[in-house]
Amino acid sequence: MRLLLAVCFVAVCFANALGGIAYAQPHGSTGAGNRSCAKYAELKRNFPEEADLAFLGWAQGYMSGINLGSLVQGSHSYRDLSQTPEQITLFLVQYCDANPSANFKDGVIQLLKSLPPVNEDSR
Is the whole model's pTM more than 0.85, yes or no? Predict the structure, then answer.
């Protein structure tokens, strides 16, 4: 029972620390990506597993959505998303360390731009 209470307490504290990440933004995205890199670094220090789960999941979904959006709009290419979670996290931690005032989403966009393109016509 104590373990369950401890887990619930940590979950509530983490949710409170993330407070408001699900608010809509006028630039077309919501969630963890709209938090600053400084906030990501703080949460990663204090709640590493929870931060990885929330932010990495957001990053993978955002990149997948951009890829799908490209194909839906008629593009015949997209970015290769075969990187491991560790590779993605390393890139984003390095980006955010160098750009603490940037939004986490900016790091995800830079990561996506750095990935090799895949051309549907050549598959």
Answer: no
